[in-house]
Design goal:
By secondary structure, the protein is α/β, with parallel strands linked by helices. It contains twelve helices and twelve strands. The protein has a seven-stranded parallel beta sheet with strand order 3-2-1-4-5-7-10, sandwiched between helices. The protein has a three-stranded mixed beta sheet with strand order 8-9-11. The model has no long low-confidence stretch (mean pLDDT 91). InterPro entries: Epimerase_deHydtase, NAD(P)-bd_dom_sf, NAD(P)_dehydrat-like.
């Protein structure tokens, strides 16, 4: 029989590509939406790549509520918990992010373990496995945990760390057969399936549209959304992945290098991309008047990188080059006419 997989948050950027990947591999997919009105948007997005047909179904469930989760997991073999509660990642109130992220993950796990689901693959973040010090350099791996009690952490980073820790603590105290695997991605870019939820892709949108005066001295570990979907599915099916964390970061790329890749890869369409690197003091001064910018100033000049050797060795995962990803992302935005 064809296995059925539940993907949480079907309207999300990553979830859309996960659904596509599962359908292309022949799985039946059920995905959660917060209201039936969202179903058409998900079908339309997925249909830009593959025909979902009757193998895509929906369940109404919200990470901030207990209702609907038992029905969502009924009869499924695996759960890919990709969704994160909505919120402003630059908010000053850490609890506004931590509580829904942690409680949402626990709702999914409680329902999944009660239903006897084989495996839950949960999306965390590479910044849940990073040194607390923003000045530390070198390469780290999945054995490192970010200290959630570090007072210098921005709320978003703390929320991802707390949520993942809560998930592992829950599974450790549960005696059932459900296994947990977590995926820790870096900066997620790549083609879009819809203009409804651009997420992290807005950075590329602003660069191509010429809405940035220059590039800050910030390095990103860029992972293609298609490769991120692939590693979730590999982690779901690999026996060796049970009970493991996997970093899913791409190659370390400075923002200035991203700009240069866009200029080269897009030709005339990339004429507005800024290639001038902004001095750190300019970024810090601008952050006094721009709260979203304030959250990234701590990363200026940071060179810490993550190793994906484990994902490559255990899962056979091979992410594509960062330049290919950002150019594909930009071309997609141009095709959708959002730049």
């Amino acid at each position: 029989m064809t296995e059925k997989v539940l993907v949480t948050g079907g309207t999300g950027y990553v979830a859309g590509w996960v659904i596509v990947g599962l359908l292309e591999r022949g799985y039946e997919v059920r995905t959660t939406v917060r209201s039936p009105a969202k179903e058409k948007a998900v079908r339309d997005a997925v249909s830009t790549v593959t025909a979902p047909g009757e193998r895509l179904s929906f369940a109404v469930a919200d990470l901030t509520s207990d209702e609907g989760w038992d029905a969502a997991v009924a009869g499924v073999d695996h759960v890919l918990h990709v969704a994160s509660p909505l919120g402003d990642e630059n908010t000053r109130d850490a609890e506004a992010l931590i509580v829904p992220a942690r409680d949402g993950a626990l709702r999914v796990l409680r329902a999944a373990t009660a239903a006897g689901v084989k495996r839950v693959v949960m999306t965390s973040a590479a910044n849940a496995a990073s040194p607390s010090s923003y000045t530390e350099e070198g390469v780290t791996d999945e054995t490192l945990w970010t200290d959630p009690d570090d007072p210098t952490l921005i709320p978003y980073r703390r929320s991802k760390t707390v949520a993942e820790k809560a998930a592992w603590d829950f599974v450790a105290d549960h005696e059932g057969s459900t296994a947990l695997t977590t995926i820790l991605p870096g900066a997620v870019f790549g083609p879009i399936l819809t203009t409804r939820n651009l997420g992290s892709v807005r950075i590329i949108q602003r660069m191509v549209a010429g809405k940035m005066p220059g590039t800050p001295r910030i390095g990103l570990e860029i992972v293609d959304v298609r490769d991120l979907a692939d590693i979730h599915i590999r982690a779901m099916t690999s026996p060796e992945a049970a009970g493991q964390r996997f970093l899913a970061t791409g190659e370390f790329t400075w923002m200035r290098e991203v700009a240069q890749a866009l200029r080269t890869g897009l030709g005339p369409a990339g004429a507005k991309v800024p290639t001038r690197q902004l001095p750190d003091f300019v970024v810090r001064f601008a952050s006094l008047f721009d709260r979203p910018l304030r959250a990234i100033t701590v990363s200026l000049g940071r060179r810490n990188r993550h190793s994906t050797e484990k994902a490559k060795r255990v899962l056979g995962w091979q992410p594509r080059p960062a330049a290919e990803t950002v150019v594909a992302c930009a071309r997609s935005l141009i095709d959708w006419r959002v730049v």
